[in-house]
Design brief:
11-stranded mixed β-sheet, globular, Rossmann fold, disordered N terminus, two-stranded antiparallel sheet, alpha/beta
Length: 697
Amino acid sequence: MSKSQQSEVNSLGFASTTTELEKNFKQVEEIMANFAKSYEHMDLDPFNLMKSSAEWYAAVAKDPQKAINANLSFLQKSMELYQHSLTSLLGGSVAAEPVITEDKGDRRFKHEGWEEQPAFNAIKQSYLLVSKWLRDQVQGVEGLDEHTAEKVEFFTERYLDAMSPTNFAATNPAVIEKVIETKGANLVHGLKNMLEDLEAGKGELRIRMTDTSAFELGENVATTPGKVVFQNRMFQLIQYTPATDTVLKRPLLVIPPWINKYYVMDLQPKNSLLKWLVDQGHTVFVVSWVNPDSSYAETSFADYVTEGVIAAVDAVEQATGESEINMIGYCIGGTLLATTLAYMQAKGDQRVKSATFLTTMLDFASPGELGVFIDEEQICGLEKKMHESGYLDGTQMAGTFNLMRANDLIWSFYINNYLLGNDPRPFDLLYWNSDSTRMPARMHAWYLRNLYLENNLCKPGGVTINDVPIDIARVDIPVCFVSTVEDHIAPWKSTTSGARLFSGDVRFMLGGSGHIAGIINPPAAGKYNYRVTDRLPEDVETWASEAEVVDGSWWPAWDRWVKALADEPVAARQPGDNGMPIIENAPGSYVKRTLNDISQTEAPVTPAVDERSETAAPAPEPAVADSSQPAPADDLTAIKGIGPKLADVLTNSGIVSYAQLAEMGSDGIKQHLLSVDERYARYDTTSWPEQARMLMP
């Protein structure tokens, strides 16, 4: 607190200041009461942490010396901090040598009060000491399986993030200054912001990261000129207007992830990857995925291959008259692209001549922090939730990604919006980040199980698409992998494993920064750097430490690579050439459909104009239950560990009631599942009979 602020408080008089504070805090109390009611029915353990914590406690109990050592170290440092703090408080200045300091990149304690004011400096160091003590307790515990250990460590970090003194008004010097400055009005306005976020989230707290009213698709984001030249129930295809007189003969088709919308590659003209590609002389097409509702519940991953990527390839060929194209896949769009290439190879389809994979995982053996969210019980919980709605709401995926960078993507906005009482500021990237999409239930369950849980995609024939075995090793076209060194979603060391699967020439580029900033890195910005190799070494860490580091964006180096494959110029192509109907202007209507654009009846997407004529294509039919299957007498998915698919397996084999499960016992259920399919050995049936008895009337 500055001297001028202290003087202002004194000049105002305690009586008037106290009256105003009391009035504001009364409003705070009322708002907090309403806030608490919104969470009465929340699932407090969606990640099944009780079980993981119990396993951790059991493992720690077997090695008490580890806890004793951590406690002794903590006690010693705490006494040292106490002595330093007492000296600082008596002398009015902070000790020169702190007992513990935050990491260099920790931006939470940047306010000068954390260093200059002894009380806050002591609070900060106490928090850092407790954090170190707790980390010492959970890291390197023997007797825990790897997944449980990762889960405990990850959520311990999230707990420590949440308990930071910066997140509480009484222990954050910046907030205290604001309270004095505004006489508590900042907390009132902040809690009003919280109520608005709760209302927008229909009872779930979805913290606004940006002023969404400041942006409009096609007006100040996603503005690169182009036309929608094709659409079906899965996507719209945008062809961008050329910016050069001649273009590369091979058109370029971009496959974005469907978990987010494509326009992260077209935020503003200054940082638009799509515009930059157009400016370099590429005929650029991009897929804009539909935002599915419950009518897409039975849409499969195979549909994304055939009705998605292959349909887009067909449309590009019709639009340009070219049977050879280059392709780019971003994140899971790259995973889909690799699957499609293997499918096309098996079918003898040779139209794709090069492929680029941006931050793409194909081998999911080491998925990084995302792996803590993937296990049988969590997937079963998601399957049950998706079975009810027909899709996974995109805010759940966004919440998972935000949790991985909680201080930057959750708590910084919590402090700014709620404690300091500031309104969120306009930021195009955060606007895109908040514009979530849904995932069809059947597709997303398949994706989680076959890729993350069982890692089948990297195995020859591990997955099939419409009965066609997928073998990425048979794909022999030139490919380029672009990964980023700080990627927390697709760790770059894991992406190199996927790059090794191809049998053709492979270029690997390692950019700076993370999953988004490292890819959306225009040359004009002069940011970050990259490394490149055409021969992946076995020891990628050694390669990364010894490789030449090139300053700036990887975009120009990639452009040179793809043009060297076939740089034959042709006259620029306009959208609508070759008789393709122009449906509407870019960015199209599919991308504008938000999570709120869904009716009570879950109406299907507006019928699309068929790609071959001006007549409307039929709307997708809602999935109809197979009447030949017997309806279960009891809802088996009410048992934790049994998802919708497994419930169908049980009912189809004659197990339709809680009473049957209770009578069979754990071993009986296990043997029954093994008789159906040996892969069901992964299920832990121990608690099912007791759960079934509890559910019996």
